[in-house]
Amino acid sequence: MKSIKSKIVFVTFSLLFAFSLVIISAAIMAFYHDKELLIAENNAQITSFEGQMNTEIAELEKNALDLALIGEIYFQKGKQKDVGEFFTQQILRNYPNSMGNGIYFLPYKVYENQKISCIHALWDENGKVDLLPSCVNSTFDYFSQNWYEEIKKDLQNGLSVSWSRPYKSTQLDILMTTVGAGIYNQGNIVGMATIDWQLDAILKSILKIKPTKNSFVLFADKSNDYVIATTEPKVDNDTIMGKSLSDIKWYSEKLIDGVPFDYKGKKYVPYIKQLKNGFFLIVVVPLFELFNAAVYHLLFLLGVLLTSTLIIVSALYRMLKRNINQPIETLTEIAEEISQGDLDKSIRLDEPSELAKLARAFNKMKTDIKIHLTEIAKVSMEKEKMASELAIAKTIQDSALPKDFPQNENFELSASMTPAREVGGDFYDFFPIDENRYGLVMADVCGKGITAALYMMSAKTVIKNMLQAGYPLEEAINKANNSLYNSSAPLMFVTAFIGILDLQSGKIEYVNAGHCPPLYRTDNEYKYVDVAKNMVLGVKPDYEYKVEQIKLKKNDRLFLYTDGVTEAQTKENNFFGEERLLKTLNQKDLSLSKTLEYVYKSIQKFIKDAPQFDDITVLIVEFYRKK
Questions:
Q1: The 226-230 sheet, strands edge to edge
Q2: How far is CA 180 from the centre of its chain?
Q3: What's the pTM?
Q4: Which of 86, 151, 154, 395 has the most CB atoms in a 10 Å sphere around its CB?
């Protein structure tokens, strides 16, 4: 080891061994990376299909709920069959993915002397919407249908929507399933709205899923233990359809997504996707086929890298043989320490000049890396802090908004909030004060982020507490204002519309604290309410707020909103504005929820692809009670 030759040989073989370890490690890491990519690629393909299915399921469930609302209005507003038939057909036109839809009432619920009462719309052979004749002439014995009994049982047990077992249509000889939602009158179920979903076309897409040559698919209704279809080799799909999952030999409740299992002496990887309506999809891929490409890639990579290493090391051996000396060894040792993360190590080398220059370059690079790593760590910490605050603020904002709208014979209410990218302080609230009065709040806290969200929670709580404590409106608002003023949040304030609806008379006493003027609809026309110019909440203590009132007649509405509606702007800085909002509301006579959806869609159409800079929060209430 004292000779130059022995040192060269030793260093050369050491480098060869080290490079081999690194190359083998890199190849193995690449192999596992390839495996993860293959799993992720297959999973992404199947997840994409799952997402499409769940989107369609959600659309069908929403369709059923919309039709159920039509059924309730039909039942409560005169039971005019031509009106019910019109809206049932219109709903089907709006949802072309469904085969048909219908409204089915329980026996003798519509008329005391009529057991059968139904309306069913369906697509005819020419692609037009028609009515089911047996419903038109009241001869359809739907009470004996399995789907009717299954859905009725679930709805009576408290489910908002229910899916039937898959079944073959007796008229069309196609595989289908039905989703239903309850029709209620004064809290009691009187019927159901149903949507028919054809499974044959979906099965064609499902059965085409084949990530590898010998992979296969199982599609089933787990909640009802019903096999819909499978592409497993040597299994007759027509025979297995409708059977129990226990008839699938490889299936087990213990299957875990992505975890291999044994079947007929081979290992398979299952991709399990649970759909929203109780159906599930399992794509089974042979483990060997899944990773076959990764194995070939590993062997090829190892061959190329090892060959390259031998060539490089041989060249290095010849170079070291000619040029080995102490400065090179010193530089190599220190450089290895730096490469392993020791950025405090300095290289001191004065000669030869070429290596001294390289040493100075290493020292500068080490210093630059340390500075860069420090900056990256600082930026990363700031981003993590901002992301954490944003997540907390979003959670606070979501938890503050009531989700269940009141079910009351005297009035109906609907509200929504679409948050901007930066979480703000918009909120709405509604709550009973006593058996004859209901509190309504629409507010906007200045500022963004977690501070605004926390202040919003404080404002929401104090306003609600003061109203429910029984204080007169003026005194309740004054107390809420003083409480917010005395809070520990500097430079924060709230604009708010706070009202109390009398469920007997329709009168709304309100205070508008620097908030956007509401719109009042009477005789089917919206107009802005001329509100008093009160101070915002939380700025000036002991401020005397002016209480005003509006008298709602039957079917009058009150529309509340925040400035995120009127101040929504395009990329050219044009605002949506109050006039455009008024025109939008007066364009169509829609239900409360549809009115809110129409306003939001009008805003999105106006701003096009411009970002949403502020929360869009709206609330609408309609009074029903007669004078």
A1: 226-230, 216-221, 279-286, 266-274, 261-263
A2: 23
A3: 0.43
A4: 151
